[in-house]
Every structure is written in C-alpha cells, then in structure tokens.
Description:
Blueprint: E1 2-5, H1 11-18, E2 24-28, E3 49-54, H2 59-69, E4 73-76, H3 82-89, E5 94-101, E6 119-124, E7 150-152, H4 161-167, E8 176-181, E9 186-188, E10 191-192, H5 194-210
Parallel strand pairs: 1-2, 1-8, 2-3, 3-4, 4-5, 5-6, 6-7, 7-8
Antiparallel strand pairs: 9-10
Amino acid sequence: MKLKICGMKYPENIEQVAALQPDYLGFIFYEKSARCFEGDIINISNTIKKVGVFVNADIKEVIENIKNYNLKVVQLHGDESPEYCLKLKAKDLEIIKVFSIKNAFNFKILEAYEDVCDYFLFDTKGKLPGGNGYAFNWSVLQNYPSTKPYFLSGGIGFDDIETIKSFFNKEESKYCYAIDVNSKFEIEPGLKNIELLKEFKHTVITKEERLK
Length: 212
C-alpha cells in the first residue's frame, strides 16, 4: 500500500514530511487553493515521486511546471479530456486522473480514460476540487469495473484507521493502490502535523505491507 501526502507548501515542513518517506508528495498548482505552491521545492529523495496537481490548467503551464520542478507525476483534478491526458502521457509521465464521488458514480465515464492514464483517484465531491475534509461513500467502489489501480482520497484522517482496515478486507479494495491524505493531517492549510502522519504511516501503511 502506497502513501501520497498532498498539499505541501512550506519548505521546512516539506523536508520533515519527506523524512517520513511517503511514496508521493503532492504540490498544488491551482491559484484558488489555500495550499497553492509557490517557490522552490527542496531536494528530496529520488524514491519520493513529486506530483503536480492541476485543475483545468493550460497544458503549456503544466509542461512548464513539469520542467521547473522535475515532476514525475501529474494529477488532473478538473474536467480534463482524454485527449488532454494523452498529450501529457507523451511526456513520459505518470498520469493520475481524479473523479469526484458523493453517494453515487457513473463508472462508464472511466472508459475513455483507461488508455491515457496510469491511475484513477477517487475524491469527495464538494465545493472545492480537493481538500474538502470529508469522505465519500466508499461502498460505491463495490461497482468499480476496472483493473486499473486507484488512489483512495477524500477527508481521510487519523480517526479513520479502523474504517480503512475494514475497507481493505473488502473486495472493492482489490485495486486500491494508494491512500491520499491532506487536510485531516494539517495544523493549517499546507502545514502538516508530522507526528500524526508518522503514526498513521506506521499503523496503516507499514502494517498493511507486512500482511502482504
């Protein structure tokens, strides 16, 4: 089980979070977000993949940020088309396409993205593209028709540990590749609680790996 920590913003905090060795660190390039990243990314281990998060951005802007920040993964959190994804896929990147869920979802939408994305990410449908702070109904994933690995996101916090453990005992978790956390591990937008993340990683991610 992989761990993605999203919404990184402050250099010292980024360094502290990187020391926990998550698999992915997410940097949001969306001006309307309270976690919008500006400045330079400190040098972090090559084992941690830097993810650029974009929302309906001009593709030239995305490519510029890929070059400037040496991004290995692009997460598309808007209404980006399969054609848009394909243009980025040609850049030899991993592409994560986000789909928002509340209590129901039309999984047929995924079909057009199967060949142009490496992963899907399921987040909570809310007022914001992400970081809304509450979970969607995970039982919707019982109807997941694909074999493509996906990220589970949306208001996941330390208090959800038992719910997560229960989820991974269910069939719908079969293709869940990673857990994506953000707002529930923050002191303020963009500033992560290191001790809480450390305990979460040890309790959920590390122990899950031991079982495999």
